[in-house]
Write a structure and sequence with these properties.
The complex is a heterodimer of chains A (114) and B (114).
Chain A (H helix, E strand, L loop, with lengths): L3 E4 L2 E5 L4 E7 L7 E6 L6 E6 L5 E4 L2 E6 L4 E6 L8 E7 L10 E2 L3 E6 L1
Chain B lengths: L4 E3 L2 E4 L5 E6 L6 E8 L3 E9 L2 E4 L8 E7 L2 E6 L8 E8 L8 E2 L3 E5 L1
Parallel strand pairs in B: 2-11
Antiparallel strand pairs in B: 1-3, 3-8, 4-5, 4-9, 5-6, 7-8, 9-10, 9-11
Classes of the chains: A mainly beta (114), B mainly beta (114).
């Protein structure tokens, strides 16, 4: 129940295209869903996050779509750029009382071709 | 702020040797996490501390692994004796307790055990 399943494992997109990464979770107690971006040789860094009281959050070219009933959420990268090439991780956590440990998905390696 | 600082960045050692990884969290952050990243298993939480106290060490693979946090500005992860299967990138991350979700990661320590 603590798992977060992420797909696809890898994704190749042309410059200007839309990149879509999907995640699914089982634990309905999760109440915080961040996406992290990791460049080679660096640690993951928070990109964007959403709570289940909204269905969508947009920050620039990055949008999270959240479907509470399906227990799924996705990251959309509009107008993908070569600089977006990185590994993306979805994650979930369930509040302070349980320690707020983040459970990460398996990661998606995104390559944006020029 | 300088961010989360980890050392060493790279460590190559022989099987059976003791390895000590070090972490300095962001000043003022009172939760600290140790993660391990491998291609096969992704990002795994090993242990985390709140206010220097270990809260959950269920992710520590076995007794060869130990972690300490003697004060708010320093933590160590020790592997003794090390084995080739311990080869991975080890990340330290910190956050403010009570601020769910956003972790600030260091750049990682890449460990190779020959």
């Amino acid at each position: 129940q603590q798992q977060v399943k992420q797909s696809p494992q890898s994704l190749i997109v042309q410059k200007g295209g839309i990149s879509i990464i999907n995640c699914a979770y089982e634990n309905t107690a999760f109440d915080y869903f961040p996406w992290y971006q990791q460049f080679p040789g660096k640690g993951p860094a928070l990109l964007i996050a959403i709570r289940p009281d909204v269905s969508e959050k947009k920050e620039g070219r990055f949008t999270i779509s959240f479907n509470k009933s399906a227990k799924q959420f996705s990251l959309h990268i509009m107008d993908s750029q070569p600089g977006d090439s990185a590994t993306y991780f979805c994650a979930a956590s369930r509040g302070e009382t349980s320690g707020s440990r983040l459970t990460f998905g398996e990661g998606t390696q995104l390559t944006v071709n020029p | 702020d300088a961010g989360v600082i980890q050392s060493p960045r790279h460590e190559v050692t022989e099987m059976g040797q003791e390895v000590t990884l070090r972490c300095k969290p962001i000043s003022g952050h009172n939760s600290l996490f140790w993660y391990r990243q491998t291609m096969m298993r992704g990002l795994e939480l090993l242990i985390y501390f709140n206010n220097n106290v270990p809260i959950d060490d269920s992710g520590m693979p076995e007794d060869r692994f130990s972690a300490k946090m003697p004060n708010a500005s320093f933590s160590t992860l020790k592997i003794q004796p090390s084995e080739p299967r311990d080869s991975a990138v080890y990340f330290c991350a910190s956050r403010l307790q009570g601020y769910t979700g956003e972790l600030f990661f260091g750049e990682g320590s890449r460990l190779t055990v020959l």
